[in-house]
Specification:
Order of helices and strands: EHEHEHEHEHEEEHHHHHHHHEEH
Largest sheet: 6 strands, parallel
Number of domains: 2
Strand order of the largest sheet: 1-8-5-4-2-3
Bound molecules: nicotinamide-adenine-dinucleotide
Number of helices: 14
Helix content: 40-55%
CATH topology of the largest domain: Dehydroquinate synthase-like, alpha domain
Distance between the termini: 82 Å
Oligomer: single chain
Shape: globular
Structural class: alpha/beta
CATH architecture of the largest domain: Up-down Bundle
Number of strands: 10
Radius of gyration: 23 Å
CATH superfamily of the largest domain: Dehydroquinate synthase-like - alpha domain
Length: 383
C-alpha cells in the first residue's frame, strides 16, 4: 500500500531546480508620431500600410468630438475599404471608468472584432486613455492608433503608451502600457477646441519647457497670442517641439522604472500638488489648470529651500499669466480648500508609502528630484 500525501521534506529526493529561460523577442517600442495640418486625411492609408489589412476599425470618440470631426475621419478610413464601427461615449472624465470600458469591449465582440482588427482613438486624453486600454485588453491586445484632438492630448497624453481608467479609489489606477501603432497629430482639430481647454494643454507644454528646454519655455510665452488666435503656422512647430521633448524623456525610461536622473518621474513636475488641487476642486479645474498651480507650488518650494533663486517663482507666474492659466495658489492652500488639498496629498502619500518624491527646478530647463516629508512640503508652499 502506498503512502498518501507528500513525503516529509527530509525524505524527498533532492532534485536540482530547473530554470528555463524563455526568450521573448524584444517588443518593438518605436512608433511614428505624424504631425501636421491635414495629416488626418492620411489615416486610412497609413493604417493599411502599417497594419496590413485590418477588416474592421472601431472609431472610439466622445459626444463632443465625434459630431465635429467623426465624419472626416470615418471617410478617410472607409476610403481604404475598412469597415468602420463608431463607438461614441459621453465626453468627460466620468467616461474613464470600468463599466464604460466593458461596454466598449462588448460592442467590439458584438461587431465581430478579432485580433486582426484595430482601434482608432479620436478625442482628448480621456478617449486616448480609455480606447487605449480597451485595445490593450481586448483579446490580449489589438493595435491602437491615437488621433488626439485636444492640445493636452496632442502634446502629452497620446505619446508614451500609458493607458488607463479611474477607480473609485483614485485616477488611472487600472491601466497598462500599450504603445500605439502610430500617433496622428493634426493641429486643425484645435480650431474647435475652446480657449480654456487650449490653455490647459499649454500648461503641459510649458511643463516640458520648464523641465527640458528654456528655449521652448520662452517661445511658448512669446507665442501666447498666436495660440489663442489659432495661428497654425506658429502652433504646429511648437507642438512638434513639445512632443519631441516628451518623446525623448519617455524614450529614456519607457516603463517608468527609473526614479532618479532623467526618467519619466520628471514629468510629474507640477503634478504632486496639482493633482491634490484637482481632486480638491472635485475636477472643477481642468487638468492643466491644476498643473499650472502645482508648477507654481513646485517653484515656490525650490525658492524656499534655496534650491533656486527667488526670481524663479515670479518667472513661472508671469508665463502662466501670459498663457491664461490660473496662478492663485494661495486660494488653494488656506481654509476649507487648503484642508481638502492637504487631505488629498496625505492620501497620495499613503499610497506611495512614505516621503514624497518631488520634482522641482533649480532654473528653467534644469530639473531635480528631491525626497520630502509631505508635512514639510505643505508647510513650505503655504505662505
Ligand atoms: N496617458 C497619459 O500619458 C496621460 C497624460 C496626461 C493626461 N492624461 C489623461 O488625459 C485626460 C485629460 O485629457 P484632456 O484634457 O484632453 O481631457 P478630455 O479628453 O476630457 O478633453 C477635454 C474636453 O475637450 C473636448 N474636446 C477635445 N478635443 C476637442 C476638439 N478638437 N474640439 C472641441 N472639443 C474637444 C472633449 O470633448 C472634452 O470635453 C485625463 O483623464 C488625464 O488623466 C493621460
Amino acid at each position: 500500500m502506498s503512502e498518501r500525501g507528500p513525503k516529509p521534506s527530509s525524505a524527498r529526493k533532492r532534485v536540482k531546480p530547473i530554470a528555463i529561460d524563455v526568450r521573448v523577442p524584444a517588443q518593438t517600442l518605436s512608433y511614428p508620431v505624424i504631425i501636421g495640418c491635414g495629416v488626418i486625411d492620411r489615416l486610412g492609408d497609413e493604417l493599411r500600410r502599417r497594419h496590413g489589412a485590418p477588416t474592421r476599425v472601431a472609431l472610439i470618440s466622445d459626444d463632443n468630438v465625434f459630431p465635429l470631426h467623426g465624419d472626416g475621419v470615418q471617410a478617410s478610413l472607409e476610403a481604404q475599404g475598412l469597415k468602420v464601427v463608431p463607438i461614441v461615449v459621453a465626453a468627460g472624465e466620468a467616461s474613464k471608468q470600468v463599466p464604460v470600458l466593458l461596454n466598449i469591449v462588448e460592442q467590439l465582440l458584438k461587431a465581430g472584432f478579432g485580433r486582426g482588427d484595430a482601434i482608432v482613438a479620436l478625442g482628448g486624453g480621456v478617449i486616448g486613455d480609455l480606447a487605449g486600454l480597451a485595445a490593450a485588453l481586448f483579446m490580449r491586445g489589438i493595435p491602437v492608433v491615437q488621433c488626439p484632438t485636444s492640445l493636452l492630448a496632442q502634446v502629452d497624453a497620446s505619446v508614451g503608451g500609458k493607458v488607463a481608467v479611474d477607480l473609485p479609489a483614485g485616477k488611472n489606477l487600472l491601466g497598462a502600457f500599450h504603445f500605439p501603432l502610430a500617433v496622428f497629430i493634426d493641429p486643425e482639430f484645435l480650431s474647435t477646441l475652446d480657449d480654456r481647454q487650449l490653455a490647459s494643454g499649454l500648461a503641459e507644454m510649458l511643463k516640458h519647457g520648464a523641465l527640458f528646454s528654456a528655449e521652448h519655455f520662452h517661445q511658448l510665452v512669446d507665442s501666447a497670442d498666436a495660440f489663442f488666435a489659432r495661428d497654425l503656422d506658429v502652433i504646429a512647430p511648437l507642438i512638434a517641439a513639445s512632443v519631441g521633448l516628451k518623446a525623448a524623456c519617455v524614450g529614456r525610461d519607457p516603463w517608468e522604472q527609473s526614479n532618479a536622473g532623467k526618467g519619466r518621474v520628471l514629468l510629474n513636475f507640477g503634478h504632486t500638488i496639482g493633482h491634490a488641487i484637482e481632486v480638491a476642486s472635485d475636477y472643477g479645474l481642468a487638468h492643466g489648470e491644476a498643473v499650472a498651480l502645482g508648477m507654481r507650488a513646485a517653484t515656490r518650494l525650490a525658492c524656499a529651500k534655496k534650491l533656486a533663486g527667488p526670481e524663479l517663482e515670479e518667472q513661472v507666474v508671469s508665463a502662466l499669466e501670459r498663457l491664461r492659466l490660473p496662478t492663485d495658489l494661495d486660494l488653494w492652500l488656506e481654509g476649507e480648500r487648503g484642508a481638502a488639498v492637504e487631505r488629498a496629498l496625505a492620501h497620495d502619500k499613503k499610497r506611495s508609502g512614505g516621503n514624497v518624491s518631488f520634482v522641482t527646478l533649480s532654473e528653467i530647463g534644469d530639473p531635480s528630484v528631491i525626497s520630502l516629508n509631505f508635512r514639510e512640503l505643505f508647510a513650505r508652499v503655504r505662505r
